[in-house]
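hi! just following up on the protien thing from before. the input was this:
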Amino acid sequence: MKKNFRTILFAIVSVGLMGNAVEAQKVVSIEVQGKLRKVAKSLILTTVGLEPGVELSQENVQQAVRDLQGLNVFEDIQIWGDPVSEGINLIIMVEEYPALEGLQFKGQKNLKEKDLKEALSLVTGQVIAPRDVVRGEQKILDLYREKGYLRAEVKGQTFAGAEEGEVFLQYDIDEGSKVQIKQIRLIQHRADGTVIDSRELPARSPRRPQKWDGQGPEPRRLVSLMETEEKRWWRKGEFNGDTYEEDKQKLLAYYRSLGFQQAAIVRDSVYYDSTRRHLFIDVEIDEGLQYRLGEVAWEGNELFGSDELVEKLELQEGMVYGRSGPELADLARFVYYEKGYLDTRVVPQETIRNDSIDVSFQVFEGQPWTIRKVEIAGNTKTREKVIRREIELRPGDIYQQNP
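and the predicted 3d structure came back as:
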């Protein structure tokens, strides 16, 4: 009977057989077996969620195994049961993954070992599982791709360490060469349904430069904003992932400065040709409408009149709406800062009306800040009273950045 019940529990946990329902019995005791080097028994007992007095079931045993697996430190987990007159004595048998003794890289030349180690975030002595090795491969690949080495290959492998239960981890790296950008293609979707494909534009002649007669940003102007560049005889045209992401934000910022406040990159792709030596980049942009400034309204402003604020912000109805409401609010807030109102808050509200945007600002001016004390330090040659004579601010004065 004892042997059979041990077999049933093993089948439930390790193989997942449902079988007939196990007769409900209470847990009498729990014992942890196995050579533990890094994991405390108390952590195992806390994780399984079983304790003496709990009624044993197929579900809570399976859940206990899943919870232990979630720790990602055990190579093998088994739960056995020994029946006694009061119920069941549980035996949890575990085998830890090995601990990391050391880490090294082979074939790495163009990236610093320090940067690779930071990307992996592995610590000597920690338990290392196969999935950790695979994740490390991907992290190293991601780092190489960010630096333009899109053809890099990485393979991690472990070797037995000097001590039992420890391993040495090595990543073999084939960096490959940097991929050169053959073509950058921009596809612009205009609000009127027109599609502009930079690949289909005629080549520009240096002797007869063509003026852009289309609506919206000129494709060549957009490309010139990017630090990511096609290969030419005078430049390498190498790809850098971080630079490319920054370039996409530059494109959108430029669109917004021209009033295309809802412009968005709807698709972008980076791909090779058949030789895997040349890179192609496609960026597809939905431009949306070009907006102009509509009506401007102010509330809560007492220090400055509405017309004065409009003048200071250089706003004019009908102008291209090249700054968003929050950006305009920051400019208005700075106007107050210059007069010592450091607590001023300006809350913008944008309302789209056809191809115009009306903006209203709710101003919470607060109170001006005053100078409490003027301290002078570091003067080794000039006397303090001489310096104070040249300072116009005195304690009690209103602080102004631009008096």
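The chain is about 30% helix and 30% strand.
The longest strand covers residues 74-84.
cheers
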